[in-house]
Amino acid sequence: MKIIELDTAAPDFPHASILVIYTGGTFGMVYDRKLQTLVPFDFEQILDRIPELSRLRFAITVLVLDELLDSSNMVPDNWLEISTIIEKNYDKYDSFVVLHGTDTMAYTASALSFLLEDLRKPVILTGAQLPIGAARTDAVENFITALEIAAACDETGAPLVPEVAIYFHSLLLRGNRARKQESSQFNAFQSENYPPLAEAGVTIEYNRPYIAPYRPNVPLKAHTTLNPHVVILKLFPGISPLVVESVLKTEGLRGVVLETFGAGNAPTVPWFLQLLKEASDRGVLILNVSQCIGGRVLQGRYQTSKYLDEIGLISGADLTSEAAVTKFMFLLGKYGTDTEKIRQELAIPLRGELTE
Ligand code: ASN
To answer: For the chain, which domains are there?
Structure first.
């Protein structure tokens, strides 16, 4: 790991001290003429790329991970590594900014929200759609505004955003409510079921009633176990018994995020319901989330979801799949074989990830 202290305009008593964790992604790419491809830039040169940083009155330390990842290569161990870095540096810094690839940023943000229980300091993830080396890059605005948000305090000096959030293209979104919606435009993220926590224009307008309240003196509880024995099974008209059976009978499987239609509806053909019932009877937990981007699961409203209720599927309410799968890994890691406890906590909001 490389540690870089940025030479900013921070006075002796800076307005905030921020730890930036650089994990990779498009953000830090520059074009290498010799190799004729994009390669990660040397973070030591950040002030050449973004000279505006030197005008900020924050103390900024950058921690560059040994292996910079395209976020498509992120795995749960990487989420644990980031959360452990935050835990270890929690008392030393006022807030944290995680520079991350956009592709799986919503998964990392969701996982961090569960791993960092009783968080009372901002953890803001950001990245870019265009590399820092490109003339029209969005890296500069995203990074600088993420730093401003991480440093923002209210009248009493309490952080304005004491939670895990994603800042991207003028929107601050709750991390476990966000999903990547766009691969070409700059507005990469949205959060259809929860209002933005802030919008950045000429000023940054915070949507304070929707931001997690600040609770002073609560110690951070950082969790260190994730159990990845889960799967996301997306239904489609014509899905075959063979496919469903082979997924549900995967060795060691503990949890299924079932992506259903509309308000949580699924086919009622007997073979399908029978396979779900057999899995449920074997102790596999099945969480029903909708394929729709907005709205929620109303299990039992239609006949096509009433059967799911009877089999014992858990309603995922308005959870995103990203939040659902990471919450599953977190609860399986935390409670092990206590299936009842996991079932109970899947259905209730732990970090504002769902609306009951
Ligand atoms: N593939 C990149 C990543 O997720 C995409 C990006 O950062 N815009 O690492």
So the answer is: 2-222 (3.40.50.1170), 230-346 (3.40.50.40)
**What's the pLDDT tens digit per position in 174-218?**
999 999 999 999 999 999 999 999 999 999 999 999 999 999 989
In what helix (H) or strand (E) does residue 39 lie, and over which residues does it extend?
strand 37-40
216-262 pLDDT per residue, tens: 989 999 999 999 999 999 999 999 999 999 999 999 999 999 999 99
Question: Which positions are catalytic?
Answer: 26
How far away, in angstroms, is 113 Cα from ligand 1 center?
A: 21
Atom of ligand 1 nearest to the CA of 26: 7
Residues in the annotated binding site: 71, 102-103
**Which residue positions form the known binding site for substrate?**
71, 102-103
Q: Are 230 and 339 in contact (CB under 8 A)?
A: no
Q: Chain centroid to CA 233: how far?
A: 20
Please report the atom of ligand 1 found closest to the CA of residue 128. Answer: 8
Q: Is 72 in the pocket of ligand 1 (CB under 6 A)?
A: yes
Query: Whose Cα sits closest to atom 1 in ligand 1?
Result: 70
Distance CA 335, CA 351 (A): 17
Question: Tens digit of pLDDT for each residue in 85-99?
Answer: 999 999 999 999 999
CA–CA distance, 126 with 138 (Å, rounded to integer): 11
98 close to 105: Cβ distance less than 8 angstroms? no
